[in-house]
Amino acid sequence: MALGLSTVATASGSPAVAAVTAPSGVACPSSGPGGTTGPAAVWCGGGVPSGIAQVSAGWSIPWGIAWLPGGRSALVTERDSFKVFVTTFAGGKIEVGTVPETVTTDGEGGLLGVAVDPRWTRNHYVYFMHTAAEGNRIARMTYDDDGVLGGYTVLVRGIAKNANHNGGRLAFGPDGYLYATTGDAQNPETAQNRDSLNGKILRMTTSGAPAPGNPFGTLVYSYGHRNPEGIAWDSRGRLWESELGNAAVDELNLIKPGLNYGWPVCEGTCDVVGMTNPKRTWPVSVASPSGIAIVRDVVYMAALRGQRLWRIPLCQGESTAAPTAYYTGSYGRLRTVTRIPGTDRLWLATSNGGQPEGSDRIFRITVR
Asked: How many domains does the chain have?
């Protein structure tokens, strides 16, 4: 199957991959170690998508994907049906239950992110972020060897909800703690309020308590976010985040504890003291990013409105190479991208509103 690269014409008339170069970041070669020579050479992450194949069909807004140990199957959530499925590497799909007390916001709320405990083989814990009557919650359940999803314990309440801007991504970091992204719930000022859980990246223990070393002694790890929906870690253990902007630009941020990422004072790059600028920005028409994954120090960012998969190599220091777009318009809106553990392969889920019902798909991408 063709890769569906976005192309533009060069001066000679030959096609070239379309790229959006942001005002922040440094354009550098996108090769791996040893791929450049000379005093000006800069090392960047390597590998490119070399093939895509459908894994599974019949989905309606699959939102979160979390791999079980061994990488042969994953838990997948559907936002509006509140259902949880186990899906095999080969594409088999079995519904294993629903998350209790989940409600919809008739917008972006519902059953969102899922994460599997690093000690799942011992405790069988899995975690969900979902919308409930009073707001968004982070909850823990069990998924056992018999394929039963059960139990329900609320870990975090008090995350305001709204029709849109609910965030929702969950992932365990290399430090063993659980991270969650929260949106501003369409109340921008909450993002600058460190006493609010909205417009933040949260970091917690598996009981929902603030993780040791959090910068303010609370759940808050970073703040000033509008609607972050993607988090992933590179080979150096650094946290990267994708964020939906308002009307001007979307962002890729390098997250550090305690920093302020600007919203609503800044959208994209600004020179306001105390605000942390993104490493890359995109016009909202070509991005509206949701999930991200990192393979060989290259960020792969799924775009909703932009309907493409962005590839952004990470380079020496904190620079990034010029992004390139894959699959533009080929599969519609792209929601979630996740790395298959221990491999250079990705799963990529579409998010076409479930219209008609069951029209979304999950694909497997090989990176070479």
From this structure: 1
CATH number of the CATH domain containing 115: 2.120.10.30
d(CA 225, CA 192): 8
Residue-wise pLDDT tens for the chain (368 aa)? 333 333 322 222 222 233 333 323 334 543 333 333 344 568 999 999 999 999 999 999 999 999 999 999 999 999 999 999 999 999 999 999 999 999 999 999 999 999 999 999 999 999 999 999 999 999 999 999 889 999 999 999 999 999 999 999 999 999 999 999 999 999 999 999 999 999 999 999 999 999 999 999 999 999 999 999 999 999 999 999 999 999 999 999 999 999 999 999 999 999 999 999 999 999 999 999 999 999 999 999 999 999 999 999 999 999 999 999 999 999 999 999 999 999 999 999 999 986 788 999 999 999 99
Residue 283 in domain:
yes
What is the spatial order of strands in the sheet that 149-159 belongs to? 111-116, 125-131, 136-143, 149-159
> Which DSSP symbol is given to 254?
E
Closest to 279 measured CA to CA, from 269, 271, 289? 269
Nearest CA to 221 out of 182, 256, 186 is that of 256
98 by DSSP, 3-state: which? strand
> Is residue 123 one of the residues assigned to a domain?
yes
Residue 1 included in any domain: no
Return the closest-CA partner of residue 145 out of 168, 122, 163, 167.
122
Q: How far is residue 177 from each of residues 107, 225, 261, 342, measured CA to CA in Å?
A: 29, 20, 21, 20
Cα–Cα distance between 278 and 261 in angstroms, integer?
Answer: 8
Query: Is 2 domain-assigned?
Result: no
Indicate the SS3 state at residue 93.
strand
d(CA 305, CA 132): 27
63's CB contacts (< 8 A; 6+ apart) are: 77, 78, 79, 110, 111, 112, 113, 168, 335, 336, 349, 351
Query: Residue 299 half-sphere exposure, CB side, CA atoms within 13 Å?
Result: 32
Print the domain residue range for 266: 7-367
Determine if the pTM surpasses 0.85: yes
